[in-house]
Amino acid sequence: MKEKILLSEEGYEQYQKEIENLETKIRKIRNIKAEAYKEAPGDGWHDNFPFEDATRQEDILLVQKNNLLKKKKDIVIVERKKTNKKTIDLDDIVTLELTYEEGETEILKIQLVGKWKIDDSNHIQEISLNSPLGKALYQNEKDDFQYKVNDKIIKIRIISIDT
Prior knowledge:
Strand order of the largest sheet: 5-4-3-7-6
Distance between the termini: 33 Å
Shape: elongated
Number of domains: 2
Helix content: 25-40%
């Protein structure tokens, strides 16, 4: 069973833009290949290193594009549906206390987002709905709970939720 990919409307638009960007890159690479083929001596493709290099680049981009297209059917667009102040929802800013198995604690202030690509330049750390932490937080109403990452259990205490 495949997991659903939760995206906001903005996240879905980013996803579509990523596919469009790959298509543009593929078209450019194909133009480079055509030029390399025309300018090569002999039959155009034997010992034509620029052509071979462009073909490798095209193959990589095609795999990336196909992977995105395969995932598209698993996307679910979610909207903010805040039902009460205790439920963690899309775009909420949440202050957490994380306690790791070793007993170490960390205070973390995050924003739960439905983006395809996270903005690292944001002043508040963004956490995707699709990350392990995002999945644990989304639509959660409990003050204390835990989640698992790579066989490690992390305890979470919700300090505050800002909508």
